[in-house]
Amino acid sequence: MKNSEILYLYDAKLTNPNGDPDEENRPRMDGDINLVSDLRMKRYIRDYLQSRGKTLFVQKLDDAPVTAGDRIAELKETDTDKLLDRLIDVRLFGATMPVKNDSKNFIGPVQFNWGYSLNQVELLESSITSHFSSEKGNKQGAIGKDYRVKYSFIAFSGVISGKRAEKTRLTEEDVKLLDEGMKNAIPEQITRSKIGQYPRLYMRVEYKDDETILGDMRSKLQLIGETYSLKDITEVKLEIGRLIEHIKKYESKISKIYYYHQEDLHLYSYGKEVSFQEAFDFIDIINL
Fold it and tell me: Which of its termini does the chain have fewer beta carbons within 10 Å around, N or C?
């Protein structure tokens, strides 16, 4: 398998992209920049794969958390290679599997950096009242806090390592499912805190070998105009001119680009609006 690098952009409006349990479940923030952990992204993908009937290693049993040892026991398998064939999330993201007499630590070929917002984000706070009382005898409902972002345009970067893919037995079909999950997983999360999030751009740049890594593509992006006042995707203007130049510079190392571009996200190359197809018409691109 060849190396790939991933650029993934989605937005969150009046929702909580990734609550911090140590901070009353507030959205994770670094000043006015909204953060989302790599584990949150992997959880989206795992939930998507599970909804498609795939067997996972990292999942609850009867809706309750379990240890890795308990999960291995429930799978009733002692051959590590056979476990890899069954467990797509281990093939993708790796895991430590405490199999009797054959425990192994697999470093996943698919890894993400933490995501961060390209815009300055305003945090909203409100009080919520439950119909249930906080304690017996209290006639009033319990009062809590609800934290959400006003609008966050979030960028993720990721890598697929061809060399590590061999060790976890990752297949091309697995990568296709990953592409599908990156496009479809987040909209399927319709919980109260997660509704309001939509994928806007996904790029997987596939190289011609298992050695090339060009680096985080987020550094080649810039939002045009005032970012703190953004309230909706229709106000976002994404400058990708430097990204286009970056891809052109290393065109000889690239096999193809798999992509999804949601039409509400407007792309610009040095101030001129372009479609994704126009921007990358010099290379083989495949619309997912």
Answer: C
Over residues 138-148, mean pLDDT: 71
CB atoms within 10 A of CB 55: 15
- Considering only the C-alpha atoms of the chain, give the largest distance between any 2 of them, rounded to a whole number of Å: 72
The answer, yes or no, to whether residue 192 has pLDDT greater than 70, is: yes
Whole-model pTM?
A: 0.91
216: Cβ–Cβ under 8 A, 6 or more apart, which residues? 113, 157
Q: Is 37 in contact with 28 (CB distance < 8 Å)?
A: yes
The string over 105-125, giving b where at least 16 C-beta atoms fall within 10 Å of a residue's C-beta and e elsewhere, is ebebbbbbbbbbbbbbbbeee
Residue type, 209: D
Distance separating alpha carbons of residues 91 and 85, to the nearest angstrom: 8
If one counts every other C-beta atom within 10 angstroms of the C-beta of residue 34, the result is 28
CB 87 within 8 A of CB 50: no
SS3 content of the chain, % helix, strand, coil (to 5): 30, 35, 35
Average pLDDT over residues 68-87: 89
Query: What pLDDT, in 10s, does the model give residues 14-35?
Result: 999 999 999 999 999 999 999 9
- 8 A C-beta contact, residue 91 and residue 83: no
- 208-252 per-position pLDDT tens digit: 999 999 999 999 999 999 999 999 999 999 999 999 999 999 999
Locate tokens 């610009």: which residue?
A: 268
CA–CA separation, 88 and 111 (whole Å): 14
SS (H, E, C) 86-126: HCHHHHHHEEEECCCCCCEEEECCEEECCEEECCCCCEEEE
Place of tokens 């990292």: 58
